[in-house]
Amino acid sequence: MNILVLNCGSSSVKYKLINVDDKKTLAEGGVEKIGIPGSFLKFRLPDGSKKVIEEVIPDHRKAIMDILNILTDPTYGCISSFKEIDAVGHRVVHGGEKFNKSVLINDEVIEKIKECYDVAPLHNPVNMAGIDAITELMPGVPQVAVFDTAFHQTMPAEAYMYALPYEIYTKYSVRRFGFHGTSHRYVARRVCDFLGVPYENQRIITCHIGNGGSITAVKDGKSIDTSMGLTPVEGLMMGTRVGDVDPGALTFIMDKEHLDTKQLSNLINKKSGVLGISGISSDMRDIDAAIAEGNERAKLALDMYIYRIIKYIGAYTAVLNGVDIIVFTGGVGENQQPLRKAVCEHLSYLGVKIDDAVNASSRGEEKVISAADSKVKVVVIPTDEELMIARDTEAIVNGRQPE
Ligand SMILES: Nc1ncnc2c1ncn2[C@@H]1O[C@H](COP(=O)(O)OP(=O)(O)O)[C@@H](O)[C@H]1O
Ligand SMILES: CC(=O)OP(=O)(O)O
Ligand SMILES: [Mg+2]
């Protein structure tokens, strides 16, 4: 059975075509920097080599179409027609309170995904763009939704409630949901397999740092708190998102700048974060280049970004009553060695010791980057949301409950 996975993120679309019978990845790649200068499609060819095509990719629909074309391309593709795809699994970012597991997509599920547009404006619409494209091009092929929010449904009420009037929760389900759950779930389990320790009794802090970023406290295999909230804008400073901010500042800005809610949402989702502070870019690669040229605001953006990560790790160490393992993942977490070093050097109070040489040489691969005598294991685990989505999709299409 061949399963195509589409993972639409805020700045990227990643994909994998997996034969789940022999667990072979037939094709993989993705589009990055969607809607900003320098966008490109990169993918692995059937012979294993890699190819990058730079082109203007203004939105997710174009990214998805490029990916589907490449799959069947006579030179670069690995299938001759879409008939060779048996099922499609989609990352869907917001599932609200309705879904704590992956589901087969039908009209009712689509309705619920659309109901969450307001609370995940950078994500659910692009996840739907993927579902629509597949429905159009591969009618009748079963599609499965795998929700970012599902893994965090184990959070206790004291972690997921906001201290707003209780009726706001009962009337509108305004509560914290958390995101990147598929990634946190994957890396938390994978790191235990990698280290050869039991998953069920570890205190793990998983740091998914990409264009969007979130940190999760995982206790005995369950998410007990995470930095994102009702929407993927709470918590860390991100590429274009503000993260934690005094809610009073928002009403103040609305008054001063005469903003309506749409304009405010645009401000905190698309114009803030690394982009808003640096004035240069949302992408860490561009920020690094600007810092190397002596740009002060790029440096401030990076310092703020790192500071928030340190704060959340401290908070979740308190929540977990200690920490055994810290995991870095996501585009930034997997690739940015100086950022990992800066964060870990601030954690010496926990007995964290980083191995500088190992950290500096690790990029995009599974690696323990803490020193042998570190009290906490610090590990880089490249995330594989696509593999998790493929597994859930296979289970559901074959009538089994996903894990
Ligand atoms: N080689 C790299 N070095 C530094 N940062 C990188 C590198 N590759 C990717 N990134 C960072 O990762 C971010 C994208 O992360 P990713 O997890 O792919 O994003 P998304 O949130 O869209 O899924 C980019 O904005 C960039 O800042
Ligand atoms: C939920 C979220 O922020 O996802 P991404 O990092 O892919 O934008
Ligand atoms: Mg992502």
TrEMBL record:
Pathway: Metabolic intermediate biosynthesis; acetyl-CoA biosynthesis; acetyl-CoA from acetate: step 1/2. The record marks H180, R241 as: Transition state stabilizer. Substrate binds at R91. InterPro entries: Ac/propionate_kinase (IPR004372), Aliphatic_acid_kin_short-chain (IPR000890), Aliphatic_acid_kinase_CS (IPR023865), ATPase_NBD (IPR043129). GO terms for cellular component: cytoplasm. ATP binds at K14, H208, I209, G210, N211, G212, D283, M284, R285, G331, V332, G333, E334, N335. It is found in: Cytoplasm. Mg(2+) binds at N7, E385. It holds the Pfam family Acetate_kinase. Its main location: cytoplasm. Its cofactor is Mg(2+); Mn(2+). Signal peptide: none annotated. One of its GO terms (biological process) is acetate metabolic process. Mg(2+). Can also accept Mn(2+). Its EC number is 2.7.2.1. Belongs to the acetokinase family. This is Acetate kinase. The gene is ackA.
